[in-house]
Design goal:
It is a single chain. By secondary structure, the protein is mainly beta. The chain has a single domain, classed as Jelly Rolls (Sandwich). It has 2 helices and 12 strands. Strands 1, 3, 6, 9, 10 and 12 form a 6-stranded antiparallel beta sheet that branches. A 6-stranded antiparallel beta sheet has the order 5-7-2-11-4-8, with no helix packed on it. The longest helix is centred in the first third of the chain and has 19 residues.
Length: 214
C-alpha cells in the first residue's frame, strides 16, 4: 500500500512539472495575438532651452478623456560656447504650468507633426498636448513627484570629437516587468523635463517623446 501511494505521488509530481511547461491552449476561435496600444510620437529640433535653473523645459500634459502613459523621452544637445554637463530631472506635476513662451515650428513637439505609430484610421488624433519653452513658464505645482534624473553631456558643436551625450528616460519595458509607466490622468497633470542647474552656455536640444493613450 505504501509503495502504491509513493508511486502515485511520484506520478503526480511528474504530471505537475509537465503541465507547468505547457502553454495554455486557447479555445477555438479565441485570438491570443498581441494587440498594440494607440501609440504616438513627436520630435523637437533646434530647441534653445531656457537658461534659468529649475525650469520646466519640455512637458507633456494629460487628456480629459484618455489615460496617457509615457513610454520614452530622449534628449541630446550641443553648445555654442563651451561643453557643459547638466542634470535633467523628470517630474510629474499635479497642476499644469502656466504662462511662459512656447517654442515655435520644429523646436516645439506640440507643433511638429505627431506621428501615430499605429493605424491612423483606428486610433485617431492624439489627445495629450506637448510643449517646449524658450521663456520659463510659471510652475504651479512646486512639490512634484520626481520620476527620474539623468546627466546631459553637451559638447561644443557637432564638430567636436566628443559625441553628444544622450538622456533617455525609457519606460517601454516596464510592462514586461509588471511595472506601471508614468501615467497622466486628467488634463491638469503634466510630466516635465526640468534642468537641475543653470545652463551657463548657449545650447541647442533635439529629441523625441513617445506615449500611449487608452
Amino acid at each position: 500500500m505504501k509503495r502504491i501511494l509513493l508511486g502515485a505521488l511520484g506520478l503526480l509530481a511528474l504530471c505537475t512539472a509537465a503541465l507547468a511547461q505547457v502553454n495554455t491552449v486557447p479555445q477555438v476561435g479565441l485570438g491570443t495575438g498581441y494587440v498594440p496600444k494607440a501609440t504616438y510620437s513627436s520630435a523637437f529640433f533646434g530647441l534653445v532651452p531656457v537658461v534659468t535653473i529649475g525650469t520646466d523645459q519640455i512637458c507633456i500634459t494629460g487628456s480629459a478623456n484618455k489615460i496617457i502613459r509615457l513610454q520614452r523621452i530622449t534628449i541630446y544637445g550641443t553648445t555654442t560656447t563651451g561643453a557643459q554637463v547638466v542634470p535633467l530631472n523628470l517630474v510629474r506635476r499635479a497642476s499644469a504650468d502656466t504662462g511662459g513662451t512656447p517654442a515655435t515650428t520644429t523646436a516645439n513637439p506640440g507643433v511638429t507633426t505627431q506621428i501615430n505609430r499605429r493605424d491612423t484610421g483606428v486610433a485617431g488624433a492624439a489627445t495629450a498636448t506637448l510643449v517646449s519653452y524658450t521663456a520659463a513658464p510659471t510652475i504651479v505645482d512646486a512639490a512634484p513627484t520626481y520620476i527620474d534624473s539623468q546627466l546631459l553631456a553637451m559638447p561644443l558643436g557637432l564638430v567636436s570629437t566628443q559625441p553628444p551625450g544622450l538622456v533617455d528616460f525609457y519606460f517601454g519595458r516596464d510592462l514586461e516587468n509588471n511595472l506601471a509607466a508614468p501615467t497622466l490622468r486628467g488634463a491638469a497633470n503634466q510630466i516635465c523635463v526640468n534642468n537641475g542647474t543653470a545652463l551657463t552656455n548657449a545650447s541647442v536640444w533635439n529629441g523625441s517623446i513617445v506615449w500611449t493613450e487608452e
